[in-house]
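Supplementary Methods, section 5.1.

A reviewer requested that the exact input to the structure prediction be made available. We therefore reproduce it here, unchanged from the version used in the analyses.
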Amino acid sequence: MGTHVARDRKLAVIGAGLMGSGIAQVSAQAGWDVVLRDVTDDALARGRAGIERSLERFTAKGTIGAADAEAALARITTTTDLDAAADADIVVEAVFERIDVKREVFRALDGLAKDDAVLATNTSAIPITKIAAATRRPERVVGTHFFSPVPMMKLCELVRGLKTSDETLAAAREFAESTGKTCIVVNRDVAGFVTTRLVSALVVEAVKLHEAGVATAEDIDLACRLGFGHAMGPLATADLTGVDILLHAAENIYTESQDGKFAPPELMRRMVDAGDIGRKSGRGFHPYD
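The structure derived from this sequence is encoded token-by-token as follows.
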């Protein structure tokens, strides 16, 4: 199945934020030639600086050799020109998590990319079918949901849209596995896929318990860590991800599914209103210095 990906392995990553630069980094480390595209030189400079810092940390730890880090950096070129995706075998979109923004990118890519290119989206909750419908080749569109921080997290969620072909899924798997990730396959394009659905349900229930005064945030998180072996409790996870981001994800899933267990509690909305959105603001369900 894996022979149809060109052996010179050209990858285009659209969006140089935390996710896009992370995907570019692990791909370059795996030997892909990567072009990283964003709309401004500033965004590209920030993305490249983040990659350099990450590689320095790995080198300092002895995880990778200095020569390998240099070689990986040399395989990444940056550009503000979307046309750079024209000769890529795989294009991964990692732009802002809004359907209109993503559809615009895919409409443009549809006119640029090679006929046999895989067009992948790193969305964590938007249905792949809605993004693929902006193209004339929905069978070539697939979800590749990497986790943050990409260089550290082992999982990639592969998501089939309604029309994603077996060949496209196989090529996406080969790409993700080449970067050292383990893949799960989401066979039905439900809002939130597997992981965002599970974490949203858990966070929503944890917030309800906290909101109702059943237990403190500390104790709810402790229960999940010690009782279920979770590395981090759901409220601490919300703080790390951003209460605003998880509120948005839960709202998206609730809108699509009309399943009451995803309806975000009032407390989450009020915290976002107040700016208490987690680690990045200094306070969420827990205080941060």
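The two ends are 51 Å apart (CA to CA). These observations are discussed further in the main text.
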